[in-house]
Design a protein that fits this description.
The complex is a heterodimer of chains A (395) and B (368). By secondary structure, chain A is an alpha+beta fold. Chain A has helices spanning 7-15, 18-26, 30-35, 89-101, 185-198, 239-248, 263-275, 280-287, 325-329, 349-358, 364-375, 382-385; strands spanning 62-63, 72-73, 76-77, 81-82, 140-153, 157-169, 174-182, 201-202, 215-219, 222-228, 235-236, 253-259, 290-294, 303-306. Chain A is built from 12 helices and 14 strands. Chain B has 368 residues and is mostly helical. Chain B folds into 3 domains: 32-63 and 104-115 and 184-252, no CATH class; 120-163, no CATH class; 255-368, no CATH class. Chain B is built from 17 helices and 5 strands.
């Protein structure tokens, strides 16, 4: 390990066992460990220096019959002899040693990974286990939360428990969530998954893509405002709500969480909100009025989506009744829509100057595109008259 | 290098040769016929009787009129809106929607092809050789409609005259100066016709051309003939182009294929309306007074989008009158006698069954 000049050091090394030497290198003080030292990427690990070394093979490449080679090869009796040295032997050994020391993160494919890194939340853990030969075909379970809880016990002191919250669904209206606790994380996940499978709920999906109407829902200090959206809008909401929507089969929706962002409360609030939805027919019956849908892409043609059995006349409607659809389904709760402030540069004088200057060029982008479509390049109209003058080309 | 160039040139030449062959083999065989005769179709087309007939023949189906349209005005979809409405409010909303439908179904006008403008305002020999380019003068007053705008040109020989249509179109702006490829290249138009994109062609023609332009009438004529040839009338029904199509076919005495389609699909009342259209345009039907009386009876009736479930006695009487009328038409005016007779025979058999069924039902209910 050392050279001749470091004889003193060598002597010390020779008299201390490897175990102690390694400890002196890798140990972290108690205070340091509390701060999180000696963990993760910069951590020094104990290396097995014997790895890759074989008895009978050393720096000098000798052939030892009976140790590193057979005594008899064919009919010949092998003799001790020195073979040519392998110059790469040491390099290979060092490479092998180094390969153990590097800190490696567990890699997941982009399809498998969840919300972040290799952590469990957001990852899929397959369908719940079959109950009495009833298989959960088409179901998939997503982990929403996995955390460790510490409990004090009289005899054992502080013990660690794992708690998991998952949502399972078939993407066609059936979904449920479950909470599981166990000593180990996989067991907690399994418990939660199977509990979710036993608590399935059915939700109607409007036109196979969204909810029936906007709604407000709350659980504890968590408040959620949910908006119905058009086809192709996507899911613009908290990641847990997004996973729930995907499990149910809702494709377009916007949700805003206000107050506490406690994940379990968000999940419970959202499920309660979905369950408290009223179908269009129910709304029409409650109001005793036709419910009419207007879509921009259909030139706002009035489509009657639900009609009650008895329709009220105008005189029968009290003056102070809520007739606005959104206000009615939100139970007279008004969403605060904050006024958008102008961008910081829009109030500056230079922005007005820019706008005035840009006025002249405002259509140029379109013209360039059209010229490229028609001529394959940006060409002046004079080119048709004077084709020989096309040396100066704009690109 | 030179060899490479040579090969490249040769390959290109061969390729071009091949392409030329391909074009000539797939050449369009439809000869466009435009409204360029003695008679102007405008007054007939705009007369209220013909307009009513054409609108009724369009057979507007609101699910198609108000179908989902995604175009450049609508880059993203919007969230639908909902309202609680009483019966009266709903009715007023429907009447509003009817007005929108009328706007969406407004037919492109059918007029005569325009004549070239040759109006010399003055000749000033003193200006000969003043400049070697033309001068164009136009009225840029705000609010002057493009067709009435004063646009004149001063030629290098000193003549001051009104501009011709193509110059007027260029100066009036608003449309693409260059003709879109789908109209300029016959092969491309042919491809669109084969793909049955009739509505797209006709809409684009409306955007690019004026209705009295020769190019517009040629494109529409080719499209109408293609629709007629392939019996694809249902693709243009409920669109604003069905009226001009029916008018075109009737004007050029080739509406018998449309009549056959009406008989085959069992829309006997519309067959009578089509006869009424022919009478209004050509006045060549012998039993005109009977026909006109029948047309007045049929026009206020609701559109038959699908086959009715049961027939009342009034319906049966009206339909029988229609059948008699069609029989007379086939005997005297039709150009496709045998096929139309066969179709009518088929319709009659179906109709008889329906009549018996609905009478039997009424008897079973004890109504008559």
């Amino acid at each position: 390990m050392g050279t001749g000049s470091q004889l003193g050091l060598l002597c010390v090394v020779m008299h201390v066992p490897a175990e102690k030497l390694w400890k002196s290198v890798t140990s972290v003080s108690n205070a340091g460990a509390k701060k999180g030292r000696g963990k993760g990427a910069g951590r020094i690990r104990i290396r097995d220096l014997n790895r890759g070394q074989v008895i009978g093979v050393g720096k000098v490449n000798m052939l030892w019959p009976g140790l590193s080679a057979p005594v008899i090869r064919g009919r010949e009796l092998l003799k001790q002899q020195r073979l040519p040295d392998d110059p790469e032997r040491m390099e290979k050994l060092i490479k092998l040693r180094d390969s153990m020391t590097k800190f490696r993160r567990l890699k997941l494919s982009t399809i498998e990974r969840g919300w972040s890194g290799t952590r469990m939340p957001g990852r899929s853990i397959g369908p719940p286990d079959p109950v009495a030969d009833e298989e959960f075909t088409g179901f998939d379970t997503k982990v929403l939360q996995l955390r460790s809880l510490l409990i004090m016990k009289g005899t054992l002191g502080r013990t660690r428990n794992y708690q998991a919250m998952v949502v399972t669904g078939n993407g066609q209206g059936l979904a449920g969530f479950g909470l599981g606790r166990a000593k180990e994380a996989p067991a907690a996940l399994r418990k939660a998954k199977n509990r979710a499978g036993k608590k399935l709920m059915h939700f109607d999906i409007y036109n196979g893509h969204t909810i029936f109407h906007d709604f407000f829902t709350a659980f504890g200090k968590t408040k959620i405002y949910v908006e119905k959206k058009n086809e192709g809008f996507g899911l613009s909401c908290h990641r847990a709500i997004k996973e729930i929507c995907q499990a149910i089969g809702i494709k377009d929706l916007r949700a805003k969480v206000e107050g506490s962002h406690n994940l379990q409360h968000i999940v419970k609030a959202f499920f309660i909100g979905l369950l408290q939805q009223r179908t269009h027919q129910q709304l029409a019956e409650e109001k005793k009025l036709h419910l009419v849908e207007y879509k921009d892409e259909n030139e706002y043609y009035p489509t009657v989506v639900a009609s009650p059995s008895v329709v009220r006349t105008k005189d029968e409607i009290p003056k102070d009744e809520t007739l606005d659809f959104i206000q009615y389904v939100m139970n007279d709760r008004v969403v605060l829509k904050k006024k958008k402030f102008p961008r910081f540069y829009e109030t500056m004088p230079h922005y007005n100057i820019y706008l005035k200057k840009y006025e002249r060029y405002r259509n140029h982008e379109k013209i360039r595109l059209n010229l490229k479509i028609e001529n394959g390049e940006v060409k002046s109209f004079l080119n048709y008259k004077y084709p020989e003058e096309n040396d100066v080309k704009e690109t | 290098m030179s060899l490479h160039k040579f090969i490249h040139k040769n390959v290109v030449l061969q390729y071009n040769h091949f392409q030329l062959l391909a074009i000539s083999s797939r050449k369009l065989s439809i000869i466009p016929s435009v409204y360029d005769g003695e008679q102007d179709p405008g007054p007939k087309f705009f007369s209220s009787g013909v307009q009513a007939l054409l609108k009724r023949l369009t057979r507007p189906d609101f699910s198609k009129v108000f179908r989902k349209r995604t175009n450049s005005n609508r880059p993203v979809l919007k969230t639908p809106e909902y309202k609680f409405l009483t019966n009266e409010e709903l009715q007023s909303e429907f009447s509003k929607a009817n007005k929108t439908a009328a706007r969406l179904l407004q037919m492109p006008p059918v007029v005569k092809v325009h004549q070239p403008i040759n109006e010399v305002l003055s000749k000033d020999p003193a200006l000969v050789g003043y400049d070697n380019t033309k001068y164009l003068f136009t009225d840029i007053t705000f609010g002057v409609p493009n067709e009435d705008r004063l646009i004149v040109e001063r030629d290098p020989d000193g003549t001051l005259q009104m501009c011709d249509h193509d110059t007027r179109k260029r100066l009036n702006q608003g449309r693409k100066v260059r003709e879109p490829m789908m109209f300029a290249d016959e092969e491309k138009l042919n491809g669109l016709l084969e793909a049955e994109k009739y509505e797209y062609i006709l809409d684009r023609a409306c955007i690019q051309y004026e209705p009295d332009e020769l190019s517009y009438q040629k494109v529409t004529s080719i499209t109408y003939q293609h629709v007629d040839m392939k019996t694809n009338y249902k693709l243009l029904r409920s669109t604003r182009h069905f009226g001009p199509l029916a008018f075109y076919l009737t004007w050029h005495q080739s509406m018998d294929n449309l009549m056959l389609e009406l008989l085959q699909t069992g829309v006997i009342r519309e067959a009578v309306l089509l006869m009424g259209l022919r009478q209004a345009i050509h006045e060549d039907i012998a039993f005109a007074s009977d026909l006109n009386a029948l047309v007045h009876q049929v026009l206020p009736m609701p559109v038959q989008a699908s086959k009715p479930d049961s027939l009342s006695e009034v319906d049966i009487q009206l339909d029988n009158q229609c059948i008699d009328c069609v029989v007379k038409y086939i005997a005297k005016n039709s150009a496709m006698k045998s096929q139309q007779e066969l179709a009518l025979q088929g319709f009659r058999e179906d109709y008889q069954q329906m009549v018996e069924l609905s009478r039997g039902l009424r008897k079973a209910h004890g109504e008559a």
